[in-house]
Task: inverse folding
């Protein structure tokens, strides 16, 4: 201190010899020494952590380096140094010391909250990547804890600033509860929704969801406290409040993916006028096609006998062959059971007649594929429906469709006396 006084006096500050500036010199020495020690310690710790990370390739060490957690912790050194050392120079009852103590205490609280939040983030990332809860929407819970710690830090800081107990401040905030609920309405709703989504495992990152009546039809890519981010299949992104997922009907396709089979439920409408009994003449006519002939021989299909009107349980399956529509349903059922990409065991497989309507008699194909991959599923479904559409006329059945321009042209050609086999030449 004596050498510093002489140096300042030579620079023109002659009062320094009498110790006028000793307190401020002491303050500068504390600041410089504490900062120097902090940076040296930070450099040493960083070198050690980098060597450990290279040797062990630890995700925790890498996260500590990336988030600069040690730097945040070491910032406590300067402020603790000021709190401890300044009273020796300025005394303990001065106004300067009082406000400096409050400022340092508030800074320490902020650093502690920041360190706690950073530590929780590191632990969450490590746990989230190496647990069965990887796809759970846990980010919202982490944000809730962060917000709670920040709110607690703010209350403690304000209490330090106004020199009052934190409990008294919290009690006073009760009067503003209604205002706070109005201001933070979305956050409170997001908090409740986030807890429910996590507790009941309603959605996960990567789930395909659809919300009826909305344009939401895509994959969840992020669930946070205030927003749920969904990437639609047209590559657009939709932001939803979390409580939307619990306040509206939600369809989650995760169960379908986990089951390994996706449902096909398609219908074709048959013209009612083309449905007839499977007489001997009809069987002989449709047997001209090799596929249908093999099918009839394999199942020993006999013409319809009007004298046999009683259907017992052991003949229930063969009773479908009394009509050409029943033959078609039996043929499609066997076709699906032999299909390599259709589930045969443990899944429903049927071809049924639905309620007739003004367009005719709908028949429905109900089965499950062996894959849930979208492109493959659509290819299997298209192949089956195209094959069924092509095979229907072989059973003397005709699918119903509304009249088109081509139908009117054919009708006019028939009226002029042309034969059906001449249609192709005349249509051009």
Result:
């Amino acid at each position: 201190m004596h050498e510093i006084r002489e140096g300042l006096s030579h620079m023109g500050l002659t009062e320094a010899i009498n110790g006028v500036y000793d307190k401020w010199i002491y303050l500068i020495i504390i600041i410089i020494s504490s900062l120097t020690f902090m940076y040296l310690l930070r450099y040493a710790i960083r070198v050690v952590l980098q060597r450990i990370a290279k040797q062990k390739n630890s995700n925790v060490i890498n996260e500590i380096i990336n988030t600069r957690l040690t730097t945040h912790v070491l910032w406590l050194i300067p402020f603790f140094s000021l709190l401890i050392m300044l009273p020796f120079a300025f005394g303990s009852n001065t106004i300067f010391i009082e406000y400096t103590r409050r400022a340092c205490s508030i800074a320490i609280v902020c650093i502690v909250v920041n360190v706690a939040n950073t530590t929780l983030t590191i632990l969450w990332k490590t746990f989230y990547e190496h647990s069965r809860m990887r796809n759970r929407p846990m980010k919202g819970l982490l944000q809730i804890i962060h917000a709670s710690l920040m709110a607690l830090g703010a209350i403690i800081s304000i209490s330090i600033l106004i020199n009052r107990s934190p409990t008294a401040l919290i009690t006073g905030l009760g009067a503003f509860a209604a205002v706070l609920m109005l201001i933070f309405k979305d956050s409170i709703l997001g908090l409740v929704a986030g807890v429910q989504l996590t507790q009941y495992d309603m959605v996960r990152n990567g789930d395909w969801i659809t919300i009826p009546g909305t344009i939401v039809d895509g994959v969840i890519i992020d669930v946070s406290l205030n927003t749920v981010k969904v990437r639609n299949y047209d590559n657009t992104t939709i932001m939803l409040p979390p409580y939307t997922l619990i306040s509206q009907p939600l369809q989650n396709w995760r169960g379908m993916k986990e089951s390994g089979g996706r449902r096909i439920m398609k219908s074709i409408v048959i013209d009612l006028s083309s449905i007839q009994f499977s007489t001997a003449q009809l069987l002989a006519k449709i047997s001209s096609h090799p596929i249908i002939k093999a099918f009839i021989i394999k199942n020993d299909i006999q013409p319809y006998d009007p004298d046999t009107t009683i259907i017992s349980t052991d003949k229930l399956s063969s009773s479908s062959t009394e009509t050409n529509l029943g033959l078609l349903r039996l043929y499609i059922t066997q076709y699906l059971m032999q299909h390599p990409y259709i589930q045969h065991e443990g899944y429903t497989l049927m071809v049924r007649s639905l309620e007739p309507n003004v367009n005719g008699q709908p028949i429905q194909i109900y089965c499950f594929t062996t894959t849930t991959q979208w492109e493959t599923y659509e290819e299997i479904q298209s192949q089956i429906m195209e094959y069924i559409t092509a095979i229907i006329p072989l059973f003397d059945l005709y699918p119903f469709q509304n009249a088109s321009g081509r139908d009117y042209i054919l009708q006019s050609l028939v009226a002029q006396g042309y034969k059906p086999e001449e249609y192709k030449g005349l249509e051009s």
Summary: The CA atoms of residues 104 and 342 lie 71 Å apart.
